[in-house]
Amino acid sequence: MINLRLASKRAARAAEGQAAERNRARHGIAKPEREAARREAERTERLLDGARRDLSAGNNHETDDPSAR
User: Fold this and answer.
1) pLDDT classification of 55: cutoffs 50, 70, 90
2) SS3 helix, strand, coil % of the chain, rounded to 5?
3) I need a surface site. Which of 1, 4, 7, 56 has the fewest CB within 10 A?
4) 68 near 60, Cβ under 8 Å?
5) Would you state the pLDDT for residue 7?
C-alpha cells in the first residue's frame, strides 16, 4: 500500500532538487569565468569562420570526392 500524500511530497522534493541543480549549473559560475568562456567561444567562432572554405569563388563542387567530378 502506498501513501499518496508521502509519494506526492517525495516527487515534489525530487522535482525541486532537479530545478535547484539546473540553477546551480546555470548561475554557479563567477562573472570572470563566464566572460572568459564567452571570449573563448567567440575566438573559436572567428577561427572557424576564417578557416571556412569559400565555395562561391570559381570552383563550385558540391563534394570533395574527385571521382564525383
Assistant:
1) confident
2) 70, 0, 30
3) 1
4) no
5) 93
**Distance of alpha carbon 64 from alpha carbon 23, whole angstroms:** 45
| Rg (alpha carbons) of the chain, rounded to whole number | 25
Longest CA span, the chain? 75
Rounded Cα distance, 64 and 67, in Å:
9
CA distance 26 to 16: 15
Is 61 in contact with 69 (CB distance < 8 Å)?
A: yes
Q: Which amino acid is at 55?
A: L
- The secondary structure element, H or E, covering residue 65 is none
Q: What whole-number distance in Å separates Cα of residue 3 and Cα of residue 10?
A: 11
Grid cell in block for residue 47: 577561427
Output the nine-digit C-alpha cell for 5. Answer: 500524500
